[in-house]
UniProtKB/TrEMBL annotation:
It catalyses: ATP + protein L-histidine = ADP + protein N-phospho-L-histidine. Pfam families: HAMP (PF00672), HATPase_c (PF02518), HisKA (PF00512). Residues 464-480 have a biased composition (Gly residues). It is an enzyme of class 2 (transferase). It comes from the Bacteria. Residues 439-487 are annotated as: Disordered. Keywords: ATP-binding, Cell membrane, Hydrolase, Kinase, Magnesium, Manganese, Membrane, Nucleotide-binding, Phosphoprotein, Protein phosphatase, Stress response, Transferase, Transmembrane, Transmembrane helix, Two-component regulatory system, Virulence. Its EC number is 2.7.13.3. This is Signal transduction histidine-protein kinase/phosphatase MprB. InterPro entries: 2C_sensor_his_kinase, HAMP_dom, HATPase_C_sf, HATPase_dom, His_kinase_dom, HisK_dim/P_dom, HisK_dim/P_sf, Sig_transdc_His_kin-like_C.
Amino acid sequence: MRWALVKVALAVTVMVVVAFAVPLGLVVKEMARDRAFSNAERRAAGLAPVLAITTDREQLERAVATTDDGAEGRLAVHLPPPPGEPGGPGEVIGARRSSGDDLATTRALGRATIAEVSGGFALLQPAAVSSGQVAVVELFVPEGEVTNGVATAWLVLTVVGVALIIGSVAVADRLGLRMVQPAQRLARAAHELGEGRLGARVREEGPPELKSAAVAFNSMADQVVQLLANERELAADLSHRLRTPLTVLRLNAASLGSGPAADQTRAAVEQLEREVDTIIRTARDAKPQTAATAPVAGCDAAEVVRERMDFWSALAEDEDRKVRVAGVERPVRIPVARPELVAALDALLGNVFRHTPDGTAFSVDLHNGEDAVIVLVSDAGPGIPDPAAALARGAGSGRDGSTGLGLDIVRRMAESTGGDVRIGRSVLGGTEVRIWIGLGETGGRGGRGDGGERRGRRVRGTRGTPGGHGLPAGRGGSGGHGRRRGR
């Protein structure tokens, strides 16, 4: 494309230069010729007054010799024949170059004529003498004087034409380069994106059309990266949700006793857990999924908590864990889809079973506030040494089998409502994970910026705890009035 533009510009410029330079050169040549003969005619007319007065040879010779042209031998005077010899030859004063026919033609026409002679041209100017006859003044004009300045003018025209051609080619090359380079960068980025290099982007510059194409390409590439990230995220989330039934299988397999079938079952469960961990770790570098903007139908948090606690309580009895649940007596509506809340609770409760020893107590408290709902999951285990790292995606808690994706599922669920997740020390002595679920835009923004103290005041019937989180009065410790399950 670049060379095509250069060729087009070259052809067009050459045609323009030829169309203007050739006629202009011919005009310059004609003007130089006219100027030379006009000057010659003016100098030849200087002898007309002398011829009108006298035709004496000596006087005419002196008059011719006094002129510059006569001194250089370029001026001649052809006198008419004597009155008694009408057809005879007349006298010639000076160097003659023209022929008799040229002289006769000039006398017949009665005006100046130009005759070609050796080395140049002869200007023949008729002039009347005192006898009434016509004499002819001949002035020799050399070839160089006729073409004086023509070569210089043609050279200037040639230089100007070549400069125009070079300039047009250079401008066309720059314009072509300005168009070709963005197109080449766009093509190169498209090839890189096709080869799997998702970081390929194009500088948004160049002509408006190519700049628009670059903007569209970058937007498309960002969308592709986001879609792939969401796919990996979904795979990781779904894999993490498999941990809940895997935990049940592992606990049930542990109670099968001994024997080849039991050993094979436990080995299969362990292998399946390793495969799930591999899938989760493969997706650890995926971007966080964009929060949904569509309205969510929501669910009854109290019902979901009761259902999941019924499920996990059976496993807790097998491991001699004390369980407490509170705040689920009345319906609590939240703007979270039921599967999302189930996945978040299962992730937190699964972490309790996975990272605390048998016999460790845990509890789930649900608090309904004016602008938010708080879900507290507490345990009496050793706690999390680095809560900030645990909240970061892929950081985990540092123990074997931890990918950190469970807390990320909980965090994204809370942030989709304008809330957040915080980790602290529970009244049971272990970890307390507090899920702040916003019920509106004001509550969500205020809760995220004001910290735990403001939120504790906004939740009905709460008081401070050692972990800095609000708990309902009368439900502060493991010996509260909530429902217990134990062996």
